[in-house]
Amino acid sequence: MFVDEAVIFVKGGDGGNGCVSFRREKYVPHGGPDGGNGGMGGDVIFHVSDKIDTLLDITSRVKHIAESGAHGKGSTKRGKDGKDLSIDLPRGTVVKDKESGRILKDMSTVGESIIIARGGRGGRGNKHFATSINQVPRQAEKGKPGEERWLTLELKLLADVGLIGMPNAGKSTLLSRISAARPKIADYPFTTLQPQLGIVEVENCRRFVVADIPGLIEGAHSGIGLGDEFLRHIERTKLLVHLLDVSPFARMNPSDAYSIVRNELIQYNPKLAEKKEIVIANKTDLLDTESGNEFIQTLEEKISKPVCPVSMVTGKNIGTLINMIISALNEIQFQKSELLCG
Questions:
Q1: Domains and CATH numbers, the chain
Q2: Four-point Cα dihedral 208, 275, 173, 250, nearest 10
């Protein structure tokens, strides 16, 4: 089961209380104060792990509380510190404060950690309150409470290429053709109910990651269909590959389908529409050659973009498409390098 959002409560452990104690030994009837300090409360730590790819494990428990520090003891014995609570998160998790919505951390690198809720400081024992005029202090500090907060965790997949399009446009089939991923494929809308990742291996040890995003429909940005909860996964992709069903059995005119999906991207986040895009006309094997070429040309004029005709069934132009993707990714990387150097 793929879970990409979770709301949890985190709390650092409370500090242990300081101790009120006096030295009592044989031949020392009036020993001074010897109350020890309380231990520190444990921290709640988020850690990025490459062994998980969903927030499912996090949602099994809402409250995550670190161990409290032990209380101080006599003979100036300090209380034991509470154990830290380490929570593994998948790469790409965005940590937000639930109340303010402020982003606290974007956990995008495997191995990185952040203390999200610090443990409380231990209270001081009565030995710390002894003075020349108060040699028998009978007070000690209580431990400080640990930090606590409600958090919203959002998982945004990290992929180079995002496959977008209306339901049943052929995104899952394309992913299975160009990578080792094996998503569920069937001839009905919303076959893909959760994002799928595939790794495409090409020459010279080059590889890129492709994300199959569940189909978008009109109104997706406002929660209709499966849309808005998956649109966030497109935000981190470098390149969009937009699939259009051009078969005679398509549920919608391809140019209209293109406009709807583009509009949903703009409504959700205008920056998504600025990403580099490759447009694909899928299921061209169901068109005859002459009328198919005219159809593609008309489609290019309507959407004002070049269109690559492909067929997942026959494999037509799949190699060409992969080369187009590699070329586009190289161009994006070059532009990024120029910005950094410029």
A1: 5-155 (2.70.210.12), 161-341 (3.40.50.300)
A2: -170
